[in-house]
Amino acid sequence: MAKMTMVEALNLALRQEMEKDDSVVLLGQDIGLDGGVFRVTDHLVDQFGSDRVVDTPLAESAIVGMAVGMAIYGLKPVCEIQFSGFSYQNFHQLENHAARMRWRTRGRLTVPMVMRAPYGGGVRALEHHAESREVYWAHTPGLKMVIPSGPRNARALLVSAIRDPDPVIFYEAKALYRAFREEVPEEEESFPIGKANIARKGDDLTIISYGAMLRPTLEAAEELQTKEGIEAEVIDLLTISPLEDSTMVESVKKTGRAVVVHEAPRSFGPGAEIVTRLLEGAFYYLEAPIERVTGFDLIIPYFSREKSYIPSVQRIATAARRTLNN
Amino acid sequence: MGRKRLALTNDIDYLSILDENGKLDSELEPDIVNEEHLRIFQAILLGRRFDERMLDLQRQGRIGTFPPIKGQEASQIGAVALLRDSDWLVPAFRETAAEIMRGRSMESILLYYNGYNEGTIIPDNQKDLPMSVPVASQIIHAVGLGWAAKYRQTDEVTMTFFGDGATSEGDFHEGMNCAAVYKVPVIFVCQNNQWAISVPLSKQTHSETLAQKALAYGMPGIQVDGNDILSVYAATAEAVERARSGGGPTFIECVTYRIMMHTTADDPKKYRQEGEVELWKKKDPLLRYQNYLLKKNVLTEGDLADFEDEIKLKIQAAIDQAELQMKDLGDPLDMFDHLYAEMPPSLQAQKNELIRELENSEGEDHHG
Within this chain, do residues B275 and B340 fall inside the same structural domain, yes or no? Predict the structure, then answer.
């Protein structure tokens, strides 16, 4: 197994799926010779040519709208939107068309496409380059919303997203792109969409997180264990929608306490749904109110202040202690 | 150095072959065999009569709101008549006649305007997309289909329809631009019917024509008399030939007129003069073509009477069939089907919730 960054792991997924299946085509801005602004598609144009790694005009709606047409035709387009902050320009193509075509035509026409987009803060990027708006997609019936938390699951989930018969929004945390390396098998590997992962076992409380927030969550769990001997169970959602609740509900039934961590703003954020699912599934097991550690209900500030906005190890650990002291 | 007039690659022509007074430019008259003339004429006649009948049904409360097509039949039929079964049609929402000619059943249209999802099912042997309500958004799907058809090295052509209002949307621009960049086999047919609900063309654009927008994208464009089936047919034939032979996209502006309301939910008297409508009624595409065919002896008064009778029966049969079908389509649980290839557990739980609810309220009407 080779140790890879998330960028390299995503590149591997794209390369292998393109080798296997000539219906997989990539389209996006600067994804050809430039390899994409984060280099996820680096060198793919050399191997597959500009017919399959398609540099597009600067037009997000066209990128996604063309993918809708291509997918209906029988191809498996994978779009790259340069930053998720620019994907609102193609929002209607997903909401009005990609998400609905199967349902409208009673299964006759389908849209097996992927929209990849970097999301989240923490890399000192300019404004419009750092938000976390996964709920927009998670709230749209007919779409799937996936957010990996590291190189290995990013690769294995992107493979599943490409093969999925329905449209998948695939958010890649910029903060994770080159943050660390992980063993990624060269041979094929795919993880199921719609299945959460228990990233750390524990009996004292459950912390639910995903994407870029998984690492600070695991660090907080480590700190709680080292300093106070508290064993936190950490759940990595991986798929935001359709949200699988059995893993987290079973965990909270065991621990009786829960903290939800995400970078997105708090109100109407993913945490609102996660907490509700826990209340529906494990209300009588709860020993304390559920805590939310999230971005504030603000536009994410320009990068000089973003550190204070994004949930920190400190904030997560403090919320966990509050939950335990209740 | 200096300042000079730029010579652009493309010019914009205006094409009119058979005018409103029945005057024919026989040099430009397209060569259409009699059988094809009759197929086209029957499609126009059916489009007109079905539209009229739908308006009656709507007024009787037997279907919901719908957008009438009256006056725009030639713009639609003259274009789709040239498509093969292996080609793709990507309609907006005022292409009922075109869709019927392509094989969509009248039953399907009636189901749709009665609020049944079954009205957007595409038959298995047909490649077209269902109608699209969000203005201009479908234009880009046509470009994607065209891109894929080219990638697979087929000779399939994709034709998309939209109105004058759509040319103000960003998706029109993005679609036209990408189509030209990728040189895809796509034909853009704009039904310029002068009105986008209550907004006239003069408030939609300051451009002298819509066709000239093609120039900016580096794509051939042409403006035609959209109420003259011969012009629409001739321009489309050129565009289809270009697309099939690898020459890329074409933009056709059909100048026509929306004789009726935008949809049955609005009253055009509020925003436009009746006099204007009367002027356009004299340019009627159906009568113009009918007189041409009668004069040419392709059609006889006897044929016409027969066609009217057959069409009347066909429409009635479709209405009867659709109303019968609707009696079996009442199951509200069907709405949970086909959102995803596989139903997620959380959605299954919601479906179960409705099942229980329905069991508790047995006997109550859950339709609509």
Answer: no
Q: Is residue B131 part of a domain?
A: yes
**Is B3 inside any structural domain?**
no
Minimum distance, in Å, between the CA of residue B146 and any CA atom of chain A: 8
Facing B130 at nearest CB: one of A104, A110, A242: A104
| The one catalytic residue among A97, A128, A129, A139 | A129
Provide the domain count of chain B: 2
Instruction: Check CB contact under 8 Å for A75 and B151.
Output: yes
- Count other C-beta atoms under 10 Å from residue A182's C-beta: 18
User: In Å, how far are A41, A99, A140, B117, B130 from A93, measured between CA atoms?
Assistant: 23, 9, 12, 20, 15
Give the structural domain span for B222.
12-327
User: Mind listing the pLDDT tens digit for each residue in B182-217?
Assistant: 999 999 999 999 999 999 999 999 999 999 999 999
- pTM score over 0.95: yes
Lay out the sheet containing B158-163: strands in order across.
Answer: B12-15, B221-225, B250-255, B186-192, B158-163, B88-90
Strands A232-236 and A114-119: what pairing? unpaired
What's the pLDDT at B365?
Answer: 61
The CATH number covering residue B262 comes to: 3.40.50.970
Within 8 A of A51 by CB-CB distance, chain B residues are 151
B360 & B322 share domain: no
Chain B hits for A61, CB-CB cut-off 8 Å, are 140, 170-171, 174
Nearest residue of B to residue A93 by CA position? B137
Work out the minimum CA distance from A192 to partner chain B, whole angstroms. Answer: 13
Radius of gyration of chain A (CA): 19
Is B210 found in the same domain as B128?
A: yes
In the residue annotation, B151 being an active-site residue is answered as no
On whether both B315 and B358 belong to a single domain, the answer is no
**Domains defined along chain A, listed by start:** 2-184 (3.40.50.970), 197-325 (3.40.50.920)
ipTM given for this complex: 0.96
**B285 and B344 co-located in one domain:** no
SS3 breakdown of chain B: % helix, strand, coil, rounded to 5? 50, 10, 40
Cα distance between residue A97 and residue A104, in whole Å = 9
Q: How confident is the model at residue B362 (pLDDT cuts 50, 70, 90)?
A: confident
In angstroms, the CA B240 to CA A40 distance is 39
Q: Between B140, B341, B345, which is nearest A65 by CB?
A: B140
Determine the Cα–Cα distance for residues A43 and A53; give it in Å rounded to an integer.
Answer: 10
Q: By CA distance, what is A52's nearest residue in B? A: B151
